[in-house]
Design brief:
heterodimer, A: mainly alpha, Arp2/3 complex 21 kDa subunit ARPC3, B: mainly alpha, 3 helices
Amino acid sequence: MHIPDGFLTPEICILMYIISVVILVLSWKKVKAIYSRSFVPLIAVSSAFVFAAQMLNFPIIYGTSGHLVGGTFLSVLLGPYAAILSMTTVLLMQAVFFTDGGLLTFGANVFNMAIIGALSFYIIKLFNSEATSQRRFLTSVFAASWLSVVLGALACAMQIGVSPMFASAGGVFVTVPSMLFWHVIIGTGEAVITTALISQLYRVHPAVLSGLTILRGEM
Amino acid sequence: MKGYVKSVILILVGLAVLIPFASTFPDGLEKVAEHLEVEEPEQVWTGLMPEYALPGIGNPYMATFLSGFIGMFLVLAVSWIVGRTVTHKR
């Protein structure tokens, strides 16, 4: 879902940069107010994990592949604000060193993957506000990770759909359904992997799920 | 701290084992562009390890693994610095 340079108009690039930078500054302030030094290793290792996981594409159907984005995973581990900073770091390294996602489109990629990914925290929160069970928690993780990929793809489809390159092919009326078609499937992969990872961590080392602590309002 | 070192080693082992199984098919967005006959334009910045391959390494497995190895440590280092800057003492 990493948009390369050239796929977006300058206006969309600028708009997405402004939105993303505003949210990044807010996240930065929130993290600064809440998080202590003891979180640094967890933030660093989970970012490194997400980077590695994003390299591993899994095939879906008709010669197409997808990979874990990891937005929901980071949200549950770190809470939404630190998850945005962590994912942005991953995306920045990918754009600068690997040409995976452009530099002009970086604002859009941060919005589609880091910011929308962090929204899944609030979906999980919504479903676990009162008495919750592990089953309910994991079901909401599954739903939120699927939705984060589908919504990210929808945002991406609208951004590329208004650029002239895609306008001649039908614009948003074509890009939205085709992006959704693939990402409904890729999102299922995201949901399966994320739920498996979180349930294993929950079992082996529940203390690292600090997003969960934030979720319960204990932090 | 020890747990985190262990996690980093686990990530590298996982990467080493899974790289040969990673799909090289285009991803969702690339497939949409391909289908609509939209060519990916010339990139303004081509990066240092395009396509996750360390330049100058003949073996494709090693080129990918080494670029992943370097990338992972870059992410680790930069997010560590971000983490240090953004958290408060205590």
